[in-house]
Amino acid sequence: MRRSLLITAWPLAAAVIALAGPGKVPAADSATATLAVTGTLAADLPVAGLAISANGQTVYAIDGTRGAIVAIDVDHPERRRDVVAAPGDDEPRPVAVGAVPGGLVVAVCRSGGSWEVRTYRPGPAAPATGPLQRLPLGAAAGDPGRVAVVASTARSWLAITGLPPPLPRVLRAVVAGLSIRFLPDDAPGQAGPPAGAATVSPDDALVVFAANGNGPAAVSFQDSAGRTLLELDAGVAQVRAAAFSRRDGRLWVLAGPASGQAAGLWRLDAVMQDGRQEAQPVRVAAFTDPVAIVGASDATLVVAAGNPVRLVTIDVGQQEDP
After folding, report:
1. Does residue 81 or residue 298 have the better pLDDT?
2. CA–CA separation, 210 vs 169, rounded Å?
3. What percent of the chain has pLDDT over 90?
4. CA separation for the pair 289, 263 (Å, rounded)
5. What is the dotted CATH code of the domain comprising 23-318?
6. pTM, two decimal places
């Protein structure tokens, strides 16, 4: 009998792991439960990136058509406004967005082969038209992966993943008030395949998924210095976004289609197999063209997916442990 293990029991250093049963089910055969969409935040917004405020009440979405950053109240989606104005024709466009405790919005922007990070402090009514900081990253002509900006809610740091080479595989920064400062990019964690989807665990570890074509992605848990605490096969391919639910600390990923795998939302459980810790993926909802996911307040996930894109909510509390 297999027992699901909350993701809060993942070992982030030398934590003791509870046994979850002897067997591991292949990902393609793991579609054992279904979660339903519980609400729609936007059906007319071509979302190109998502972030969530520290309290889980406000979603920040990049409007993929205009380039503006839009704020939406999760409980009252009619409360929607631009918090960062659309860029001008000659301005870099945001490709990823993050939210830092204290109201700071961080955007990774691109103009041709030039990359930079911009920070904003949106006002209560009018959108921010100019950045507080402009931090050049350098030039990179290659296609980026799935660029992600993730921030700790417990400590003052953030990380950027998915940048194209020769830019850093994982770029870390510390937050001081309303400014950010990049850390040296020679920390551990720079080697390996391109980093894409990323999130921050309840224990404040950076969780990074590395692409592996149509094969299962590798997932690593890293401390603030970039040291790897845990690395294993995620059991699911084409991971495009990841998030933890706030109430129970489970890890969820949005994945595209791959050989023997349908696109959708997957829950990753921690299991033990032959004395080793492994990830057990369970597909819980079908989504075509998945884009992004964030964990909102309590047991709510916000998912951007579909063609055209819809921004919807899912109550993960409706699913019991298998």
Report:
1. 81
2. 10
3. 55
4. 7
5. 2.120.10.30
6. 0.88
